[in-house]
Design brief:
Chain B: This is PpiC domain-containing protein. Chain B: GO terms for molecular function: peptidyl-prolyl cis-trans isomerase activity. Chain B: It comes from Hyphococcus luteus. The complex is a heterodimer of chains A (about 650) and B (about 300). Chain A is α+β, with helices and mostly antiparallel strands and about 650 residues long. Chain A has three domains: about 60 residues, no CATH class; about 350 residues, no CATH class; about 180 residues, no CATH class. In chain A, the strands form six sheets. In chain A, strands 1, 4, 5, 6, 7, 12, 13, 16, 18, 19, 21, 24 and 25 form a 13-stranded mixed β-sheet that branches. A four-stranded antiparallel β-sheet of chain A has the order 15-14-17-20. Chain B has about 300 residues and is of the alpha+beta class. Chain B has three domains: about 100 residues, no CATH class; about 70 residues, no CATH class; about 100 residues, Chitinase A, domain 3 (Roll). Helix content of chain B is about 55%, strand content about 10%. In chain B, strands 2-1-4-3 form a four-stranded antiparallel β-sheet, sandwiched between helices. In chain B, strand 3 and strand 4 form a beta hairpin. Chain B is elongated and about 105 Å long. The chains are: A alpha+beta (about 650), B alpha+beta (about 300).
Amino acid sequence: MNDDFDNNQPGNFIRMQIKLCARCFLIAAALLIAACAQETSLSEETSEAAKQTSEAGAGETSAPPPSRPNPLRNVYFGDLHLHTRNSYDAYLFNVRATPEDAYAYAKGGTIKHPMGFDLQMNSGPLDFLAVTDHAEYLGVLEAIDTPGTEYSKAPYAKDLFSSDRGDVIAAFGHFVVSLRTGEILPELSDMSATKSAWRQTIDSAERNYEPGVFTTFIGYEFTSLPEMRNLHRNVIFASDKAPPAPFSAFDAQNPEDLWRWLDAKRAEGMEALAIPHNANASDGTMFERVKWNGQPIDRAYAELRMRNEPLVEIIQTKGQSETLPLLSPNDEFAGFEVMDLYVGSIKPVTTFAGGYVRDALKRGLETEARIGANPYKMGVVAGSDGHNAAAPYEEDNYFANHGVLDGKPELRGSVPPPDYESWDAYYADGGRAPRAMGSGGLTGVWAEENTRASLFAAMRRKETFGTSGPRIRVRLFAGYGLEGVNLATDEGVRAAYENGVPMGGDLVAKQDETPQFAVIAMRDIHSAPLQRIQIVKGWTDETGKSFEKVFDVACADNGAVDPATHRCPDNGATADLETCEFSEDKGDAELQSLWTDPEFDPAQNAFYYARVLENPTCRWSTWDAIRAGVAPNPKLAKTIQERAYTSPIWFTPANDDQ
Amino acid sequence: MMTSETPQTAGSRGAFSRAAREPLVQFLVAGLVLFTANGLLNGEEQQRAQDEIAVTEGRVEQIAESYRLLSGRPPSRAELEALVDDFILEEIYYREAVAMGLDADDTIVRRRMRQKLEFLAEDAEASKEPSEEELAAWLASHKQDYRLPARISFRQILASRDRRGAKATSDAAEFLKALKTGADPENLGDASMLPSALPLTTQEGVAALFGEAFASTLFEHKGEGWFGPVASPFGAHNIFILSQEPARDPALDDVRGKLRADWIEARRRKTREDFRARLRQRYEVSIDWPGVYQDQPAPAGAMSAD
């Protein structure tokens, strides 16, 4: 235990025993102990003082000003997935920024990248942030790096810390083996460093919470990686009530055990939910048709899962998990930020079904047809998974995610490695294409006010959406009698809430009525204008088999949807690959539509979610190349169409109690 | 020992003779290490002869107490004997190791010693609470750090470029004419997801929603009533400033918590720096730069008192 770093630890003998007189000034301590002995302060006092410090610290930011709740709900943007030095891997990547730094960055401040340059968002502060460090070896790397701790006696301790890329990767591998098996390294099995870092996580969240202005969530990442298949979840707590230690993949790799633990914590008054991420790297195991023990999913499983896992992260820096062309051949926008490798490995994923959200939503309907319960009725969020205590959400302000591993363009595949003059030379020499890392995603939440209670309630009811980074605003409602509803006005939003359900909701069939979908989206002024809004529909037929289809429902530039193809005309927007300037005269600032499903069948279970596409803009890798004066990497997309995905609305036929 | 930032200019004998002059170094030599300091506190085992180890009653009690804290019960005689034996062995090993100079060239020991001293330096000041006067003085001398930015509140009416294309600006000019002759703002303009009225918001907040150019136009605007058109990526806006709140210095009570935290942090930093400077002052440092570095220009401020 490294008590020297922890003010709350009464263990430091010197600190307990010595209160120095003013003249001797701390220093000549031992020689003067006798003289100062009457001033000896006790450990209780020390820890009491530390406690007061942290309480006052919490008070300093949580005071004014309470916002007025808006019953029509405001949108708030934030990240529910960010790592700091307390994560074992981030520490190995030379990241030394703390949760405190992460909050400073999210609030619009400037912090340092491990390679020494400044990090700050161009688009202004976020509204909320959860610091989600890995529960496994939480805080342990710092302890290993601290002489005198038990941890530092690990035989390989001195080999772990280096800024050399090869050494960092080797050190990382040391820990990945243990995550793959779920067995904690015995020499690091002492939990004191983890408990101390968890305390720090909680204290930092409490200190930085400013109700009405900025919301923090206490959270962590459950890093289950059985045989390298990614089953990671972020656990987000609803309030300041959190357990003394997180439930980690060393407690169990089986997510069902995590959910049971969450059930137990809930019973003790600690409300929380888990959010799976990087299903794309799960090799088809994130949304299986069977339970951990191989038995088919049953109703109890579906309910346990949905009680604890109502949301899923759809996009982040390690690719999107919505769908890909192989699973959605008729979706020409599916080939976007696809990452088809295992995490922390170059092993290719081979099983895609069961690893993507759209497919899971369909599986959910299929399962419901069989057992009467839907295990995959998930709302949508997005995050960064940044490991620098800060994440790049903007393509033109990119600094990657893994400290010294990718802090410079030539380390992340956007500029040829130093030994090569061009990409042609690199590939001619047998060079491997880089992993297709992206920028961070953001979660949008529709809530009455920017407080933990309000945001968490919105997450529970899935009134959330995910974006690939830009702060695109999007609202989706389904209901009956929505004619004339204009979501650009307060009256329109009020009518939509009264006559319909928002994203994340359930719409029940109504005799002789066809549901209507009202959708509106507004661009992020720091990104590009919008090109189209689409509705993605999934449904099951009478045999229980599932299908999907994508409908364009609003086109920019006064375009009309072709009724045969359900597509907008190409608006011709482009980005200039020499300058990254894009067509400002193409695309709309705002798009909206009142849509009815031309193929609606009141007897079919279905889900509908909206996807909003921007005009094309330069990808971060193109920005890197332009700034370095080199050609962009031919193996990476040069432009991207940033997007937002809403939580679905589920339609349930009448006379279907399930 | 304390020469961690200086080249080794003397052997260990030289270091010890200097130690005799320096209370600080004396302290370190005597052992900042836990049990030695504890021994001093317990009183009776100072100045041991090289080959003599006297384990005092106080020491034994302390060992027993540590055991009780860990296990929840006092040790038996046999257990205590084993613990004391172990303590004696540790003492012997420690003395032998120090005598062999094993601590001198060990990076970990050196780092650890430096760390302990640094923590000591910071810790003594850490618990001191600032007085009301000190807080006020801090606020007065760091006004710019606590200054609250200007905020404005306004209404806006949009002529949407999506809807009106190139005519957005001229339509907005028409709206302005109507507004100036008393038209009802409710009946003008295009609805959008943008708020039609914004509560008091900083320039940064306005820019996040409407863009930097729009925000600076509004914050620079002087005058009453509707004005426009002001361009944004959404189109052309007419604006009515509802209220303006200039940048202001907060009262002490508004920022008390932050002031206190900053004051304590600054004091801690100053303590650390003073401490370092005072130590550094006591040492005459000479550096033998290798040839390749000799010809390179020294960085500004290099090798000052740090």
